[in-house]
Amino acid sequence: MEGRPSNSQSEHVELLRKIREFTRAIVEDLSNGRSPTILIDRFRNYCKNPIANCYCSSDKSYGKEILTLRRESHVHRLDVLLRVLLIVQQLLHENKHGSKRDIYYMHPSVFSDQSVVDRAINDICLLMQCSRHNLNVVSVGKGLVMGWIRFSEGRKIFDCINCPNSANPVPVYVEEVKDIISGAHYILVVEKESVFQRLANDQFCNKNRCIVLTGRGYPDIPTRRFLRLLIEKLCLPAYCLVDCDPYGFDILTIYRFGSMKMAYDAKYMRVPEIRWLGAFPSDSENYSLPEQCLLPLTAEDKRKIEAMLLRCYLQREVTPWRLELKLMLQKGVKFEIEALSVHSLSFLSESYIPSKIQGGVHI
C-alpha cells in the first residue's frame, strides 16, 4: 500500500461518517441480542426481456438483497465484509491507497479467494453509495495508451505527443488526471495488445493523428474510467476494434454499456458514444478472408452468443449490433483481427481502419 495526495477531504469525512454509523448500528443490534439485517441494493445493466420493455439503463436499483446472521450462508460473507470495511476505514484515515490484492493478503486464510474480497468491495460500494476509488481501493492497471495526448496524474506528466507511437500505462489514479491536451481527431480502442503493438510499429498515430487505447483483453476499471474521462474532456469520436468472436463482442459491450458485476457504477465508466468499427462477421466476405483464417464456433461460443442475443440493450439501443451477432451465429465461424494481415502485414493500419473511419463504416 502507498500514500497518495488526498481526494476531496469532505468526501473522505462523509464516507468515514457513513462507515461509523453502519458499524455502530451493527454493534447496537448485537448488544441488544438482535441479528443485524443489512439491505444491499441490486443493480443490473441489462435483462433478458425479449421485447426490451425495461429500464435497465436507468441507474436505479431493481430490488434489495437481504443479508442476516440468521442465514448460515451469510455469516462468512458478513465476516468478510466487516473485515474489508475495517481495512478501507484504515486506508481512508491514513490517506493511503491499496489494491484488491493487498487487501486479500491481509487475511488470506479467512478470505480464501480473491473473488470473495471483490464481492465485499462491491457490497461496500453499494452500502456506502460510492465508487471503488472513493474507498481508496485501486486496481493494478494493465491498460496502455499512445498517440496525440498529454496529461498529468498527480505530479507525473505523461507526454505521449512527443513520441506518439510509444506505449504508456493508463493512469491508475484517474481522479487525479488533469491538464489534458490533445491534437487528436479520434480515439481508437483495440481489444488486444498485439494489435496495439502492430499499430505502434506501423506508426499509426503519427499518420492518423489519433489516440489509441487497449485494455489488453477485458478492460480493467482504470482503462474504462480513463476512456470515459477522455470522451468527456475532449469530445472526440471513439471507435472500438475487437476480434470477431463472442468474447470480443462481450468486451465491446462492456466499454459501451458497462459490466454486470459493477452495474451500480456503470454511469462513471460506460461510453455510450463508442462505435463498433469491426471486426464484423460480414467482414470475412467483404475482405475475402480465406477459409484457413476462419475458425468454427465451439459449443461454448454458441451458448455465449445465444445468451448475449437476449440482452435487452441490444434490442433497445443497438439493433445493428444484434444483427451482426446473429450473423456470426448463422455463419458458425469466428476470426481474429490479425486475420486481416493475410492481405499484407500492415493492411490493418494502412487500409482497414482508415477506410472504415473515413467511409463511416461503423455501427
Automatic annotation (TrEMBL):
<dbReference type="GO" id="GO:0003677">
    <property type="term" value="F:DNA binding"/>
</dbReference>
<comment type="similarity">
    <text>Belongs to the TOP6A family.</text>
</comment>
<keyword id="KW-0799">Topoisomerase</keyword>
<dbReference type="InterPro" id="IPR036078">
    <property type="entry name" value="Spo11/TopoVI_A_sf"/>
</dbReference>
<keyword id="KW-0539">Nucleus</keyword>
<dbReference type="InterPro" id="IPR036388">
    <property type="entry name" value="WH-like_DNA-bd_sf"/>
</dbReference>
<dbReference type="Pfam" id="PF04406">
    <property type="entry name" value="TP6A_N"/>
</dbReference>
<feature type="domain" description="Spo11/DNA topoisomerase VI subunit A N-terminal">
    <location>
        <begin position="77"/>
        <end position="137"/>
    </location>
</feature>
<dbReference type="InterPro" id="IPR034136">
    <property type="entry name" value="TOPRIM_Topo6A/Spo11"/>
</dbReference>
<protein>
    <recommendedName>
        <fullName>DNA topoisomerase (ATP-hydrolyzing)</fullName>
        <ecNumber>5.6.2.2</ecNumber>
    </recommendedName>
</protein>
<dbReference type="InterPro" id="IPR002815">
    <property type="entry name" value="Spo11/TopoVI_A"/>
</dbReference>
<keyword id="KW-0479">Metal-binding</keyword>
<dbReference type="GO" id="GO:0007131">
    <property type="term" value="P:reciprocal meiotic recombination"/>
</dbReference>
<feature type="active site" description="O-(5'-phospho-DNA)-tyrosine intermediate">
    <location>
        <position position="105"/>
    </location>
</feature>
<dbReference type="InterPro" id="IPR013049">
    <property type="entry name" value="Spo11/TopoVI_A_N"/>
</dbReference>
<dbReference type="Pfam" id="PF21180">
    <property type="entry name" value="TOP6A-Spo11_Toprim"/>
</dbReference>
<keyword id="KW-0460">Magnesium</keyword>
<keyword id="KW-0413">Isomerase</keyword>
<feature type="domain" description="Topoisomerase 6 subunit A/Spo11 TOPRIM">
    <location>
        <begin position="186"/>
        <end position="357"/>
    </location>
</feature>
<dbReference type="GO" id="GO:0003918">
    <property type="term" value="F:DNA topoisomerase type II (double strand cut, ATP-hydrolyzing) activity"/>
</dbReference>
<dbReference type="GO" id="GO:0046872">
    <property type="term" value="F:metal ion binding"/>
</dbReference>
<dbReference type="GO" id="GO:0000228">
    <property type="term" value="C:nuclear chromosome"/>
</dbReference>
<keyword id="KW-0238">DNA-binding</keyword>
<dbReference type="GO" id="GO:0000706">
    <property type="term" value="P:meiotic DNA double-strand break processing"/>
</dbReference>
<dbReference type="GO" id="GO:0042138">
    <property type="term" value="P:meiotic DNA double-strand break formation"/>
</dbReference>
<dbReference type="InterPro" id="IPR013048">
    <property type="entry name" value="Meiotic_Spo11"/>
</dbReference>
<dbReference type="GO" id="GO:0005524">
    <property type="term" value="F:ATP binding"/>
</dbReference>
